[in-house]
Amino acid sequence: MTTMKAVGLYRYLPIDHPESLVDLELEKPTPQGRDLLVRVHAISVNPVDTKVRSPKEQVEATPRVLGWDVAGIVEQVGPDCTLFQPGDTVYYAGSIVRPGANSEFHVVDERIVGRKPSTLSFAQAAALPLTAITAWEALFDRLHISQEPARNAGKSILIIGAAGGVGSIAVQLAKHVGLTVVGTASREESTRWARELGADHIINHFEAFVPQLQELSFAHVDYILCLNSTDTHWVNMAEAIAPQGSICSIVETKNTLDLSLLNSKSVTFAWELMFTRSMYQTPDMIEQHHLLNRVAELVDQGLIKSTISDVHSPINAENLRRAQAKLEAGRTIGKIVLEAQV
């Protein structure tokens, strides 16, 4: 049996516990069907990692490997693959219902994999897939925003949490398609980061939205993308959205949302989860391959930039515990990346 190094868990523990994430030796996987075997060069951490790992009573009989942001090189392809071949450089976010990529090698369905931007290092590329897919699907599939700038003239979007991982990409994509972007931030450094990425205006998400928007001469906004506490911002969003506008959120709720607040304005509300296509093997799963390739083109054209902010090496349990602890503190800007010593 050929083995590989990996980081995983048996028990769901607080991140400061030394066994919350542990170094492992696992069997190296073999690609089947449309799977690629990828040698992992870099990974990044996301809130989903901390949510999946969060303390609970469950104990795993076999170790669970997390990690849903990868850049690497195709080592081997399954018998049914048509999109890639060994030696191709790739980036992707993987599937929540399969083993994660915090390992030396990883198998992934080629339909959710894109070609790595040629102008980026593996570390820079690893910061992009999950947030880029989420932002792209939220803007263009859920909010149905046109990708033609001329059709968005005079239209505005409010992005709640503009300096976070998804927000950092959403701001850039929204500006690229011609929207006026109002971001929310509450600290000087996050405000500066969002403005540097293209946000036209910044408001504070700890204060009522409408008075702040009115000070900026906005009666309302046409679109809202919520990337922070749907529960907290629900009433503010209902007040700020334009009649016949659209709201999308990526943050699950603890409370039941009062959808009647959207009734008189005929407002559309949608959820976005970038794992939906891979989780349910939807007929359009290959759209994630296409959109990642499109994002790579925009990056290589200098129109979108990686939001990497912090890099550690190597990929091991100690560094992953440190990275997840930073993420749980809730004050990160951009993306934390771990680079393998390949």
Automatic annotation (TrEMBL):
Chief site of localization: cytoplasm
Listed A to Z, the keywords are: Acetylation, Cytoplasm, Metal-binding, NADP, Oxidoreductase, RNA-binding, Zinc
Domain of life, per lineage? Bacteria
Entry keyword annotation includes RNA-binding = yes
Under the GO molecular function aspect, what terms does this record hold?
Answer: oxidoreductase activity; RNA binding; zinc ion binding
Complexes and interactors: Homotetramer.
Which family does the similarity line name?
A: Belongs to the zinc-containing alcohol dehydrogenase family. Quinone oxidoreductase subfamily.
Q: What is this protein called?
A: Zinc-type alcohol dehydrogenase-like protein
Q: Can you name the source organism? A: Tumebacillus permanentifrigoris
